[in-house]
Amino acid sequence: MTTGRALMLAIATFGLGVWVGPQLTGGARDRSEISQQATVVEPPPSVETPAAAPARRPATPRVVRPAIAATSADLHARLQPVLNKGTNMDVAAEGFRNGEHFATVAHAARNTEVPFLLLKHRVLTEGKSLAAAIRESKPAIDASVQADLAVAQARADIATIEG
Fold first, then answer.
1. Can you say whether residue 86 is alpha, beta or left, with left for phi > 0 and alpha for psi between -120 and 50 degrees?
2. How much is the CA Rg of the chain, to the nearest whole Å?
């Protein structure tokens, strides 16, 4: 078959499809008439009974303990072994919003072997999350896991102090 004959066959097939297609699908005119005749039928308004509100339990008083201050002597005694020997605990605790925050950064520094002052600077001064500060210092370790571990260790320290 020559190129000319193949081209003529393709054009004829296309023309046949254009001519027969609307008859096979119901025609364009029939579809427009059907869409004009269609009307939107709204369902009848249903009569809904309001659901009974779930019974509330009486509020139990929740005991909220005040947060341990970062300057707490008990916390300093607990964290002294975590930080480097000879660390001035008052200087180390300076700037933290509470004892748990201080203990978390201290544990993260110990666990990841990133200097405490570097983590403290990145968290407090630069405003980074602990995980981001760890990730910046040691990209090879899983920073979010290390941050979660440090939070758990800090909470355990606080629970021991509150004991």
1. left
2. 36
What are the boundaries of each domain within the chain? 3-31, 73-162
Indicate the pLDDT class of residue 54, thresholds 50, 70 and 90. low
pTM over 0.70: no
Give the span between the Cα atoms of 153 and 58, in whole angstroms: 34
Residue with tokens 């509100």: 53
Nearest in space to 158 (alpha carbons), one of 111, 98, 96? 98
DSSP-derived letter for residue 98 is S
- Say which DSSP state 88 is in: -
Of 134, 84, 74, give the one whose Cα is nearest residue 104: 134
Phi, psi of 79 (to 5 degrees): -90, -10
Residue 27 clears pLDDT 60, i.e. is over it: no
